[in-house]
Amino acid sequence: MPEEKSTLELSPLSMGGPGPLYRQIVEAIRREVASGRMPAGSSMPSFRALAAQLAVSLITVKRAYEELERDGIILRHQGLGTFVAPGGALRSRTERCNVALEALRSAIRAGREAGLEDRELLEILQRELADSPRPVKSHDGGQR
What we know:
Layout: H1 21-35, H2 47-54, H3 58-70, E1 74-77, E2 81-84, H4 88-113, H5 118-131
Antiparallel strand pairs: 1-2
Helix pairs in contact: 1-3, 1-4, 2-3
């Protein structure tokens, strides 16, 4: 497996953020992998390094890594380290697409319950898409 230096830079976590800290780590790593900023074969930080970077316990990082490994996003090799799995980006992107799809379905239900016509819902979606900033593409095809 080609090893690339770990470039994992996660935003600080928040005790008041959405969900438990380990879940925030899982979602942040999924975003990095899905965007291509952490391609297959990239080396992940050790438990200790990531725990120190994020100021969380080793147990929190271990739990996040275990979930990511179970979901096929990362692979742990005894004595070698932890790496982004081949196909991890696709799995991560698929999961994130499913979350977005469910959010859109919920918004459609809410709009229809509020009496909005399909045309009005489409206009709102188009306006929001136009106003929403797009991620910047990196030189390697990933997004930043």
